[in-house]
Backbone:
């Protein structure tokens, strides 16, 4: 595993041990089977409780709610090691940690925290996060799902699209607009009347992950399931910042995986009478990959420090998510090429990672959305919308 | 029940081992180390005993500072506390010296049961368990594949070429663990965090000296390439003419 600038030497002995146990878990439970799961379009649901037992759910959640209360750096390392296996596995863990446990902890009532967090930490409960809609992806503020105030709670109507873990979730953290048009968060339980899900089966990316549509037809959500402290688009975006941070680390995991595989293949593969590593073109590919990997490794390590010391903002995270995923995709493509025809099969990992990176580059803010966030930061001009001169002035 | 487990830091089974220039040792820098795999069965067995019957579990090794990594892993797997008998060049010790150290610790700890791997993958002496049982006057069962723990005796299964044997053995006893005894579990993140807080005592001990010396270490010859045969007839011919066992 390439760690060219010895960044893992920054880790404490416990952090290194945590890295090693997760790595061992991925070697033993994920890598031997992932090609088959991916081809079949299956997420390994039998591992959910094992994730809980291993302590992968609720890494940063305080211990009083059944979590481990560990650092963002450890959360990042775990994401990296899991994505070395597959983005679908990491996605499951990201959603549970950052998009379900985080909002319940941050915006939830004390009762909601006690009711849900410990069971989410063991994997007894699975959660999902419903923000995107078929016609509201990059621009979630344009969502159509509505929450109408009624006696004792709200009634939800609408649908959410592209929701990771949707059909295997016991609870869904759902975002909808109230009568005043303000975005609010709701904890919808699986058996609430009028709530149903449907899987998206035709994916050719992130196949070892469940992606579903959530449908709400007059779903009554009692007041006690409304997240009391969530108001406005900022609330779901805060969740996304947490998840995107983990995804950036995940990109590093993909980079490490594809480089490891390509180099061991190239050492053995004889072309024109010599191992592939003997040719300068190949060496250039590897030098590029090592440089790419080292750059994103440095980036996420620094970002972890900023996160843990409370100095990171969403823009820092945007840059890392944008770069790490694009870089991982480029590395996977190079690695795939080095593997020749073998590289297009699921017996090797590069092509699966390359395909996964397409979904990962789209979800949690597309590459372009992060570009616009950074563009606004640098220039001071928000360019998400085409400027209507009458509104925007000058 | 009180269980003492002995483990050893050994090179990873996947590591490529090279001799040092003087041929008396292996190059240790940059090598990955693990708990000797058979000792890991012993650790898991102790953890299982504790979760079934309660009591206390202690893990020990004779090793250098780096061996604390392996002790911490055993703690992360669920052992209660650890003892490091410090020896900076522990790999040069012979089984009598290591056995002496285990027996000395056991005399203080008074365990009902001592469990260790049947063999260490780097030394291959198979000598440790018999030595310790002898030194302490404990009963001995080697190559255990399954054990039922009763209150004053245990039923131990061991497999040999002749078949399976079941022994009934009173405590105190020494068991050497064979593959199949259990399925060692990867420690959890919680386990790692708990291990950090568990006691790890470092003990200095004078070991008896013996006139042993490793004269030369030679790595195994590189493995020959695989030969794919087309048919059963081919196989029979190769077994007859080349391998000459038919
Ligand atoms: C596998 C998978 C899992 C997902 N899981 C979840 C989940 O668990 N929960 C959830 O809520 N959502 C989830 N999503 C949804 C994901 O967040 C959205 O797909 C994403 O936000 C993009 O939205 P969209 O697909 O509607 O694309 P669009 O927003 O329609 O974008 C289409 C293209 O236009 C570009 N674009 C958009 N705006 C601009 C602009 N102003 N200027 C220039 N280009 C622009 C985009 O970058 C993109 O290239 C998931 C998606 C996938 C694929
Ligand atoms: C779907 C599919 C269908 C196919 N159909 C046919 C078919 O119908 N008939 C047929 O005969 N073949 C077919 N092929 C085989 C195809 O032509 C070979 O895969 C191709 O020639 C590459 O060979 P390889 O896979 O052994 O890769 P290798 O030759 O092992 O190459 C591996 C990598 O090394 C690079 N490389 C090779 N030599 C050098 C060098 N000297 N210096 C630097 N880099 C080098 C390559 O560019 C590649 O990136 C098919 C392949 C696929 C994937």
Residues:
């Amino acid at each position: 595993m390439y760690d060219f600038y010895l960044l893992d030497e920054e880790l404490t002995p416990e952090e290194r041990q945590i890295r090693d146990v997760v790595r061992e878990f991925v070697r033993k439970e994920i890598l031997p089977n992932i090609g088959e799961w991916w081809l079949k379009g299956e997420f390994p649901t039998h591992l959910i409780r094992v994730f809980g037992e291993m302590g992968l759910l609720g890494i940063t959640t305080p211990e009083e709610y059944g979590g481990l209360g560990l650092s963002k750096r450890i959360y990042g390392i775990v994401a990296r090691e899991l994505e070395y296996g597959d983005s679908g596995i990491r996605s499951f863990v990201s959603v549970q940690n950052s998009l379900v446990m985080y909002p319940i902890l941050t915006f939830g009532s004390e009762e909601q925290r006690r009711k849900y967090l410990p069971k989410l930490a063991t994997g007894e409960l699975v959660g999902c996060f419903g923000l995107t809609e078929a016609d509201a992806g990059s621009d979630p503020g344009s969502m159509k799902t509505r929450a109408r105030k009624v006696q004792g709670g709200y009634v939800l109507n609408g649908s959410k699209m592209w929701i990771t873990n949707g059909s295997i979730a016991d609870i869904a953290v759902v975002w909808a607009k109230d009568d005043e048009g303000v975005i609010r968060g709701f904890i919808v339980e699986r058996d609430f009347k009028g709530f149903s899900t449907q899987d998206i089966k035709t994916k050719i990316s992130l196949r070892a992950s469940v992606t579903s549509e959530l449908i709400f037809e007059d779903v009554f959500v009692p007041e006690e399931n409304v997240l009391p402290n969530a108001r406005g688009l900022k609330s779901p975006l805060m969740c996304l910042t947490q998840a995107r941070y983990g995804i950036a680390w995940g990109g590093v995991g993909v980079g490490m995986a594809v480089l490891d595989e390509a180099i061991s293949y190239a050492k053995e593969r004889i072309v024109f009478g010599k191992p592939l590593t003997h040719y300068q073109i190949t060496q250039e590919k590897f030098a590029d990959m090592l440089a790419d990997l080292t750059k994103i490794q440095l980036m996420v390590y620094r970002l972890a420090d900023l996160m843990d010391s409370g100095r990171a903002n969403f823009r820092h995270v945007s840059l890392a998510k944008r770069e790490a995923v694009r870089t991982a995709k480029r590395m996977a493509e190079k690695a795939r090429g080095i593997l020749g025809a073998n590289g297009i099969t699921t017996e090797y990992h590069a092509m699966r990672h390359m395909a996964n990176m397409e979904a990962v580059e789209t979800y949690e803010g597309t590459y372009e959305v992060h570009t616009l966030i950074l563009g606004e930061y640098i220039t001071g001009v928000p360019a998400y919308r085409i400027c209507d001169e009458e509104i925007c002035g000058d | 029940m009180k269980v003492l487990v002995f483990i050893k830091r050994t090179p990873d089974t996947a590591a490529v081992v090279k001799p040092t220039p003087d041929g008396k040792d292996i190059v240790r820098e940059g090598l990955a180390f693990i708990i000797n795999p058979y000792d890991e069965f012993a650790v898991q067995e102790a953890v299982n005993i504790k979760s079934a019957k309660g009591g206390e579990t202690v893990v020990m090794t004779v090793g250098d500072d780096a061996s604390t990594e392996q002790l911490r892993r055993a703690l992360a797997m669920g052992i209660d506390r650890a003892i490091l008998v410090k020896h900076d060049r522990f790999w040069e010790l012979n089984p009598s010296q290591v056995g002496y150290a285990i027996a000395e610790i056991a005399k203080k700890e008074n365990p009902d049961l001592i469990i260790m791997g049947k063999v260490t993958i780097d030394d291959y002496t198979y000598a440790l368990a018999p030595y310790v049982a002898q030194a302490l006057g404990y009963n001995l069962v080697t190559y255990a594949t399954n054990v039922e723990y009763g209150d004053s005796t245990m039923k131990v299964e061991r497999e040999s070429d002749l078949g399976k044997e079941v022994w009934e053995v009173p405590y105190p006893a020494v068991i050497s663990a064979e593959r199949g005894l259990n399925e060692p579990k990867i420690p959890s993140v919680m386990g790692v965090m708990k291990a950090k807080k568990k006691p790890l005592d470092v003990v200095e001990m004078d070991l008896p000296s013996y006139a042993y010396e490793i004269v030369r270490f030679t790595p195994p010859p590189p493995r020959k390439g695989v030969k794919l045969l087309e048919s059963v007839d081919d196989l029979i011919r190769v077994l007859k003419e080349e391998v000459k066992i038919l």
Observations:
- Chain B touches chain A at residues 69, 72-73, 76, 186-193, 195-196 (CB under 8 Å).
- The first strand of chain B starts at residue 2 and ends at 6.
- The CA atoms of residues 9 and 67 of chain B lie 6 Å apart.
- Chain B has a mean pLDDT of 93.
